[in-house]
Amino acid sequence: MITDLQEYIEQHSTPEPDYLHEITRSTNLHVLNPHMLSGHIQGRLLAMISKMIEPKYILEIGTYTGYSTLCLAEGLKEDGRLLTIEKNDELEDRIRYNLSLSPLGQRIDLYIGSAIYVIPKLPVRAFDLVFIDGDKREYEAYLDLVLPLLSEKGWIIADNTLWDGHIADSRYDRDAQTKGLRKFNERVAQDKRLEKVIVPLRDGLTIIHPLA
Fold it and tell me: Over 60: is that where the pLDDT of 1 sits?
């Protein structure tokens, strides 16, 4: 008998591929802050959105251990590529190994460094899908950098925009990451050029689409 709502959701959703289950397990065993990993349900949603958009080029800001990267790559066009940026160089070997667990890894380009400096130098200048999951203090800066790089059908998904409820909790008013996310959320909410919705899944996902 199922007694947990999360367990019910997982049992009634498409299972994650075996290689993603392996990434989840190894991340929990060997990497700090494993809660940062997207996980089964958010991963399936990211894969489904990507499949609906059918992007030729995807940009991901914040690779972590590559789970969300491989989920997003499921929707790539046959000749498409995903460019992902990770600030923590200590994760590079683990990321490259994890990406090699799936044939999709051959269509992914990993960049190590701060997204603020890497994005202006990227060889691709038009993305159909951007996933923002980097330094929460820099979300506004990421937005400024990626909005001009969206294709005509481009979409943005921003992760962690509810920040474990801290976003609406006055006890976190001095927390730099909470403040960064609040500024991003307000900026997006007030920009009338953007259609947006916050999905209260896991830590909050904001889906953003520029109006025509």
Answer: no
